[in-house]
């Protein structure tokens, strides 16, 4: 089709046809609008939830956790209920991690259950003894801090960082002191130096950071560690696990996918739902436009024949009809984008009754410009596609045949 | 000479093979009003569709304005028609979505030689000459048959084509309106120096035209 067809006259004719069928054109436009709106709201919401969970869960926990499996070894080393990783094994693991291309960073930890006692309450917690300098490369705690300071405060003597739910239950705040009792009965006084929140109740309820030295002292495990946490460059590539388990025996590796199966599946389901529902709606909208234009072409055969006898070419006719569906598509898509934004905005400001699982004040919503571009392109493409076949049919009307039948 | 047709043969294949035009040759000069008459089914309309370049599925030669029609591409043909040929049919079909004025303007807007104001003025002059100027702003379907036919003639004239082809332009009109349309056609030939070919059963037309061509079963008698 040449550029010549794109002229004022053809557009004028197309607009005239649209305006005499205002109601039908409007309905077709509503169809596109609904498709695009749904797409945008769903994508904004679903990816918002996905990103939120990704951020809270996956960025809050390591991609791979290495721990010892052997009961015997832990007994040998005197851990109570926890498997320790021997120094020799730790060195082997470290040497593998150091050279692996996909390793972003790693950190040693000594973990232990403990009972935390405040002035008024006591609760069990899962204590992670960390090496602050290493741990800072693993978890961006600064961003999650509600009060106090992050890992650097652990280098001071006898300090502890608490998840917000746990702190609330213990009725403590920064500056307050706690007593911690570890399984072998040793106790220590700790000062709360920071309170953080990952937005996930299961984390905020139990996670507690102290410096590794404190825990090693209490457990009488000089230089002892129980886990190595690894952060990967490409999180989906977990081949490192195989390298580790084949090189070092009696260790266990878990990756983020195994640990968060439900969330991984949830993300997938949300993706599929978004695409299939939006696609179905746009398909319906497209079919609506196809139908309307098809009927118009049949009704307007005489007009098309006359236009041809007075010098309008087949390409002009294609253009005249295609422009109608493009106008419907563009207007519907723009309005769909605007409505999608408004609805997304309303949802994003809707207070959310915090569930047991996640802690957020409002629904997590993404506002990425690319989703609007995508939704708009989808809407317009659908209508162009739906409009093309009736338009081509219109251009093939044989004027002689029609005029004979007039 | 404005039009030259040589040995035109036309077949219809369905429902059965049938030769509708048999070796038709004719030439038309500028300023002629030529009528084609003959029995129903003799092939008048078929010939006119070919002469107006709407039907190019025929054998033989057709030159209009020195241009061999068969040499025009499917892109060029509509432009050629737009520029050089005006067409009037029995059922004077106007586009109902458009006003009378817009209907007349459509071919000129396609031609795109003049700006919209000039085209509008041209159209109003024509509507005035044809006595339907007062309806210019009306939707085209709110006119009587005779009025619509006059608008259709204005539409055929708007690009000032040298050749006008009319297939039974009075076939659907009463006596009074037929007479009026005929008056208009002969005025157009005489004062505007156009060539008009008109197929008709109307004895008043063919008796008063410059030349008559009789069509008998696909063969013409000059
Ligand atoms: N599309 C077609 N397919 C097959 N045969 C056709 C077709 N159109 C016309 N014919 C036949 O061609 C012949 C000539 O038809 P045409 O319409 O040219 O006649 P006409 O002289 O204009 O008649 P009338 O005075 O009734 O308008 C007729 O026998 C008709 O049946
Ligand atoms: Mg006829």
Distance between the termini of chain B: 16 Å
Named CATH architecture of chain B: 3-Layer(aba) Sandwich
Bound ligand species: adenosine-5'-triphosphate, magnesium ion
Q: What oligomeric arrangement do these chains adopt?
A: heterodimer
In DSSP terms (H or I, runs of 4 or more residues), the helix count of chain A works out at 15
Shape descriptor of chain A reads elongated
Secondary structure: helix percent of chain B: 25-40%
Mean pLDDT across all residues of chain A, rounded? 85
Number of DSSP E strands of chain B: 10
> What percent of residues of chain A adopt helix (DSSP H or I)?
40-55%
- The helix/strand series of chain A, from N terminus to C terminus, equals HHEHHEEHEEHEEHEHEHEHHHHHH
Mean pLDDT of chain B: 91
Question: What amount of the residues of chain A lies in strands?
Answer: 15-25%
Unreliable segments of 5+ consecutive residues of chain A: 73-78
Question: Care to count the β-strands of chain A?
Answer: 10
* Class from secondary-structure proportions of chain A: alpha+beta
Number of helices of chain B: 7
Q: How would you sum up the global shape of chain B?
A: globular
Estimate nothing, just give the exact number of structural domains of chain A.
2
Instruction: Please give the order of strands in the largest beta sheet of chain B.
Output: 6-7-8-3-9-10
Major sheet of chain B, described briefly?
6 strands, mixed
Quick description:
The complex is a heterodimer of chains A (406) and B (222). With 406 residues, chain A is an alpha+beta fold.
Please characterize this protein's 3D structure.
The complex is a heterodimer of chains A (406) and B (222). With 406 residues, chain A is an alpha+beta fold. Chain A is elongated, with a radius of gyration of 32 Å. Helices cover 54% and strands 17% of the residues of chain A. By secondary structure, chain B is α/β, with parallel strands linked by helices. Chain B has one domain (3-221): Rossmann fold (3-Layer(aba) Sandwich). Chains A and B meet through α1, α12, α13 and α15 of A and α2 and α3 of B. Magnesium ion (MG) binds next to α1 of chain B.
């Amino acid at each position: 089709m040449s550029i010549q067809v794109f002229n004022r006259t053809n557009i004028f004719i197309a607009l005239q046809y649209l305006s005499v069928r205002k109601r039908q054109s409007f309905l077709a436009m509503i169809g596109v609008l609904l498709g695009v709106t749904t797409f945008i709201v769903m994508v904004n919401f679903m990816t918002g939830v996905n990103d939120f969970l990704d951020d809270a869960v996956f960025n809050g926990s390591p991609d791979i956790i290495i721990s010892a499996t052997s009961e015997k070894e832990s007994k040998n080393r005197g851990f109570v209920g926890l498997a320790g990783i021997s120094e020799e094994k730790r060195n082997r693991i470290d040497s593998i991690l150091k050279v692996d291309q996909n390793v972003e960073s790693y950190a040693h930890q000594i973990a232990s259950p403990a009972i935390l006692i405040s002035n008024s309450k006591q609760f069990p917690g899962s204590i992670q003894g960390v090496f602050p300098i290493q741990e800072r490369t693993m978890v961006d705690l600064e961003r999650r801090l509600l009060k106090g300071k992050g890992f650097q405060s652990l280098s001071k003597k006898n300090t502890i960082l608490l998840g917000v739910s746990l702190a609330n239950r213990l009725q403590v705040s920064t500056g307050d002191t706690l007593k911690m009792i570890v399984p072998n009965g040793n106790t220590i006084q700790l000062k709360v130096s920071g309170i953080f929140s990952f937005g996930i109740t299961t984390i905020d309820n139990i996670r507690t950071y102290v410096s590794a030295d404190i825990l090693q002292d209490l457990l009488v495990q000089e230089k002892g560690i129980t886990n190595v946490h690894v952060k990967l460059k490409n999180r989906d590539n977990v081949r490192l696990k195989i390298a580790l388990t084949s090189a070092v025996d009696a260790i266990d590796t878990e990756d983020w996918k195994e640990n968060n199966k439900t969330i991984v599946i949830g993300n997938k389901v949300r993706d599929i739902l978004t695409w299939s529902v939006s696609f179905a709606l746009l398909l319906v909208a497209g079919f609506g436009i196809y139908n309307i234009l098809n009927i118009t072409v049949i009704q307007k055969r005489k007009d098309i024949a006359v236009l041809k006898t007075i010098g309008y070419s087949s390409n002009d006719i294609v253009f005249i009809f295609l422009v109608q569906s493009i106008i419907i598509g563009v207007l519907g898509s723009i309005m769909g984008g605007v409505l999608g934004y408004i609805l997304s905005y309303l949802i994003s400001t809707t207070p959310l009754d915090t569930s047991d699982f996640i802690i957020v004040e409002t629904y997590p919503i993404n506002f990425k410009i690319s989703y609007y571009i995508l939704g708009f392109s989808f809407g317009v493409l659908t209508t162009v596609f739906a409009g093309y076949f009736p338009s081509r049919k219109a251009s093939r009307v044989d004027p002689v045949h029609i005029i004979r039948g007039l | 000479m404005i039009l030259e047709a040589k040995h035109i043969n036309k077949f219809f294949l369905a429902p059965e093979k049938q030769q509708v035009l048999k070796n038709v040759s004719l030439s038309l000069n500028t300023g002629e009003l030529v009528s084609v008459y003959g029995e129903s089914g003799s092939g008048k309309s078929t010939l006119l569709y070919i002469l107006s370049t709407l039907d190019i599925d025929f054998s033989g030669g057709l030159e209009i304005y020195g241009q061999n029609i068969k040499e025009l591409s499917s892109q060029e043909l509509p432009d050629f028609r737009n520029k050089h040929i005006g067409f009037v049919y029995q059922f004077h079909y106007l586009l109902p979505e458009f006003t009378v004025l817009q209907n007349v303007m459509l071919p000129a807007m396609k031609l795109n030689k003049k700006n919209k104001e000039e085209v509008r003025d041209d159209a109003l002059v024509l509507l005035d000459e044809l006595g339907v100027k007062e309806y210019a702003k009306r939707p085209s379907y709110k006119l009587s048959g005779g009025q619509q036919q006059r608008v259709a003639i204005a539409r055929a004239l708007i690009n000032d084509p040298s050749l006008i082809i009319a297939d039974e332009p009075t076939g659907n009109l009463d006596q009074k309106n037929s007479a009026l349309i005929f008056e208009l056609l002969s005025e157009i030939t005489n004062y505007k120096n156009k060539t008009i070919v008109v197929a008709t059963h109307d004895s008043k037309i063919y008796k008063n035209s410059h030349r008559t061509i009789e069509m008998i079963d696909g063969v013409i008698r000059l």
